[in-house]
Design goal:
Layout lengths: L1 E6 L4 E2 L2 H9 L2 E4 L5 E4 L5 E8 L3 E7 L3 E7 L14 H8 L6 H20 L23 E2 L7 E6 L5 E7 L7 E5 L4 E2 L3 H11 L4 H10 L4 H13 L5 H14 L4 H10 L4 H13 L6 H13 L6 H13 L4 H13 L1
Parallel strand pairs: 1-11
Antiparallel strand pairs: 1-6, 2-12, 3-4, 4-5, 5-6, 7-10, 8-9, 9-10
Helix pairs in contact: 4-6, 5-6, 7-8, 7-9, 8-9, 10-11, 10-12, 11-12
């Protein structure tokens, strides 16, 4: 037996057929009764059981009938629901303070066992919560459950992941499933172009940076590339303009051209685009020159005091981290020594 588990991402859509295909290469189909059937990549029939919560999706696969259920411990619970359970289960929960942490834990433990068994039987909730008990006459959790007119199954809790309560039902006792955590980004609730436009509404991007953002949101490379290219055609993306604006703002913040060029490269700017942006800064009459900016940053550190060699060394390191060229740094330090 194997359990494939996917953690859902916010703002993404997850369907069981898509999850099963992504996680295990399994094609899910549904019978008229609603029961799930599956076929593996090699064409072999499989028994499967799927459980789906707000933040998680999981699928149990086995060679014989099986059932899986998981619940998030944070889910909203109502004491009214407990009244639909079997009398033995109601009696057990009745000895606990309703909705206390202990009551919640025991309710969920009962619930996932019942759901796992009902899925094992192939009927789900329509089988009826009160028709059978997962507790025996001593109010201990029963290892084997057999509802009237239904097959017997071994039912056990499963320590799956923190924050989850889970149980499985199967035909053999003490059968431990292999748990496989899978990466799947789900499907977008809107296409890549709409997502890219929404991102641009929040702030400006370089083309490469926007492509990277779309890929991180789960879009395929072709989708992301096509969306970015379309936005370029429409004039919403202009790498050269972005680079000039970024370089100008960075220069006003006291950064040197080496650091500005490095930051533009990190955002995906081509070397030619970065060079032209820095040339535009140098030609801007309202901008200080590279040496003037470096001297201004040095004066901020001095605060009007005459520097000693230790202070000059610290200024040199700071200017280097800001991305000023060595020649500029030496020129500034020389002038400070002689001032």
């Amino acid at each position: 037996m194997k359990i494939y588990v996917i953690r859902k991402k916010k703002g993404r859509k997850y369907t069981s057929p898509a999850c099963a295909k992504a996680a295990a290469g399994i094609a899910l189909e549904y019978e008229e009764s609603g029961r799930t059937v599956a076929v593996s990549e090699d064409g072999a029939p499989l028994h499967v059981s799927v459980s789906d919560t707000k933040n998680w999706w999981a699928m149990l696969t086995a060679d014989s009938p099986c059932g899986l259920d998981l619940e998030e411990n944070s889910r909203n619970l109502s004491a009214v629901t407990a009244k639909k359970l079997h009398p033995l289960e109601q009696q057990y929960l009745g000895g606990l303070e309703p909705l206390s942490s202990e009551w919640r834990a025991e309710f969920l433990a009962i619930w996932v066992r019942k759901e796992a068994y009902m899925k094992f039987c192939g009927e789900g909730l329509r089988m009826g919560l009160g028709r059978f008990s997962v507790l025996d006459e001593t109010l201990a959790y029963a290892k084997q459950i057999c509802a009237k007119n239904h097959p017997a199954a071994y039912v056990a809790s499963l320590d799956l992941l923190p924050g989850l309560t889970a149980a499985i039902a199967c035909g053999a006792p003490d059968e431990e499933p292999e748990v496989i955590l899978c990466e799947y980004a789900g499907e977008s609730e809107r296409n890549a172009l709409d997502e890219a436009a929404a991102l641009l509404a929040g702030r400006s991007y370089m083309s490469a940076d926007l492509q990277k953002k779309l890929r991180a949101k789960g879009y395929e490379a072709e989708e992301a590339d096509a969306a970015v290219e379309r936005l370029r055609e429409l004039g919403y993306l202009d790498d050269a303009s972005y680079a000039r604006t970024y370089a100008s703002d960075a220069a006003r913040k006291g950064k040197g051209k080496l650091r500005i060029a490095r930051e533009l490269a990190q955002k995906g700017a081509e070397a030619k685009t970065a060079k032209e942006a820095l040339e535009a800064v140098a030609e801007d009459g309202e901008q200080l020159s590279e040496r003037e900016r470096a001297m201004a940053e040095a004066q901020k550190m001095l605060r009007g005091e005459k520097p000693d060699e230790k202070t000059l060394a610290r200024i040199g390191r700071r200017l280097s981290s800001y991305g000023y060229e060595p020649s500029v740094i030496w020129d500034v330090l020389g002038k400070l020594r002689n001032s």
